[in-house]
Amino acid sequence: MTVTAVFGLRAAFYEQLHCRYQRREFDNWQVWGGNLTIEIDGRVCEPPLARAYIEPGKTAAMAQVRCELFVAAVDPREVQPGDVDARLWTDANGTNDYVEMRLLVDAEGVPVLAGNNLVFESETFALGRTGTFSYAVEFSADSYAEAGRKEWISLNDLAENRDGIVVVSPEWVRKGPTIAEVCARKVGAEIDERGRFRSGRLAELTRCLDVIPADVIYLLPFFRPGFADLHTGADVRKGTLGSVYAVQDFFQVDPELVSPTEEVDWEALVAEGFVLPNEMEGLAGLSAAQAEKALGREAFVQLVGRAELRSLTRKAHALGKKVIFDLVLMQSSRDCPLIAEHPEWYLRDERGVPQIHQIAWLVYSDVALFDLVYNQPLQEYLLEIAPYWIEQCGFDGVRIDASQTIDRPFLKKLKNRIQAVAPEALVLGETLCPLTEAVDVPTDAIYALLVDFHRDTEHAQPLIDFLEEMNRTFAPGTVAMAYFENHDSPRATQVWHERFREFLQCDEQARDYWQSLTCPIQPDPGNRALLMALLKNLQAALIDCSAGSSSKCNLTRGLELGSEWGEETRTDFENETLLHFDWAEREPHASLARAYERLFALQKEWPEFCDGEIYFHRNEFAGGDPDDRILAYVRYTERGALLVAHNFDPLTVRKTSYHFDYLPQSPTSRQKCFDTYEALAIKAIPASDEISEVSLMPLQTQVWRLYIAKKN
């Protein structure tokens, strides 16, 4: 091609990109740009969000961006590098950097086209730190190369596009840690001899950390709560205790969670380093009573509260666990001092007082709603909460309350602020919303909306459809926390217990079947509905840790403290209810608790659950269950596979057989590695010797390891 031709093509690009159209007013029949993708370690993602996992300080993910450009006025086959420029902007390296992009050509220098579109590819760049980063593509045919004078046109100016976001998370999150929600107010709580509720305490939670079958302890808000309305003086608390989400002071511990000063082992807290050197100024050698007198009671309680939080996180770390806390960003209590100090930080109703918070049908009349969007001073204040507690007390991350309602740029800043002080921290985003509203939430993990499916679905197909919709909707590699009960929902075990009790009362055949089962651990032969509810509980827990896909949407199991022993009382942190911790020592609840411990241990032995792909055996296929009551799937890698089969039917024994032609090689043998009937000491029918055949008793779940012959 001649120099004149090259100049002519660049001039054509210049006229089309810079002269003929206004930004965002391009005729896309004539000029168009799009199909933006990013490839990260071999995985291709589209905007708005992509995911990567690294070990901070040890590994980096490698990324490369591609996009396409169409200009009708030029023959794309004649275009050469230099006819039009492209560059990638990203803040992935901590600064606003530009990465060179090049026209994709073959060995002969001819453009590699996508249809009639030119394809541009960036240099490979490293994602070497955790956080949330943006990337965007710009084009130019402007030859005025003086600094700051060359005009660039963004992909978003050319057509309807979105800049890309990359969430880089610590590698341990990808592996699907089990997360236990804990309300410290209820751990060790009791009704005293005068009939008054005595709050649970942080120290009591610390003492029982080792028996909570989870990798991550997620604390509901432990901040100082508020109860009144600053304008009216009225007590607006919800229930008798008030909500833990009505925060009066984000930088103080709820005094009710702190050991009473007369019970504090002050010397031990000091000796073990839970009181920091800067906090010991003027207190060296003093007793607890003397330290309290020197500081004042309130300051001393806060000092002890921080020390007990450090004791909690240190013990958790010694056990190989992490601790995160609930970060409330949307509201404060109605008596929070910020209402008077910064009235401009709040949304106001028609009376000029702070608005209450309402999401759909949920009305939070005890809180004042922040005016968060674009409110820079308020955002800066809120951005300091998580780093303060992480640095002060050793927390390992946060769960962001109602994260889908928070503007994404602020969430990006929040995650980056947290990762700056704790690169391995987890940022979990609550997303109780339609799936499409959660696709761009820039947190390390989100929520899987499986609560209603677990509680109410009795057929496999709806659950499979939803799981596959998640796989299609979310960015590849997304981790979503799945649970069947939490503080916003009734205890699923209680719902199942009542439902099965009615079922057995109305169905004589079912009643006869369950009464005939041999189950030595059941203390009350007449209450087989409880046994059924516990089987359903364990079945849901197994689904929550096994029904994901490593390259699509992986599930991480969540439980609410008490799920593991079949608790039926809601956490109900606003009222003086007590959880039945003693049930964990009584049958049949004790057997369920042991099953949870075994499941927690086995999850670490089953690499397929964090690294494997999933194949759902839909029941409409040959060999399936005609009534769609069997949920069966295989999690597999090149090295091994696990067959997981659940019978949702509370009455009928079901027998099915499966093909495994999608596996790298056919299984040569199998071994049962978990059985919910065995876990609760229920006598079941003998297993078949056929590798592909499974027989399931009512509400039974089995997990089988499929052994695959190694390739020569």
Describe the structure.
This protein is α+β, with helices and mostly antiparallel strands and about 700 residues long. The protein is built from 19 helices and 35 strands. Strands 1, 2, 3, 4, 5, 6, 7, 8, 9, 10, 11 and 12 form a 12-stranded mixed beta sheet that branches. A hairpin with a 4-residue loop joins strand 30 (about 630-635) and strand 31. Residues about 1-5 have low confidence and may be disordered.
Which key terms come to mind for this protein?
about 700 residues; alpha+beta; twelve-stranded mixed β-sheet; eight-stranded parallel β-sheet; 19 helices; 35 strands; about 25% strand; globular; disordered N terminus
Please sum up the structure shown:
By secondary structure, this protein is an alpha+beta fold.
- How many β-strand stretches? 35
Q: Which whole number gives the mean pLDDT?
A: 93
Class of secondary structure makeup: alpha+beta
**What is the CA-CA span between the terminal residues?**
53 Å
Helix share bin: 25-40%
- Unreliably modeled segments: 1-6
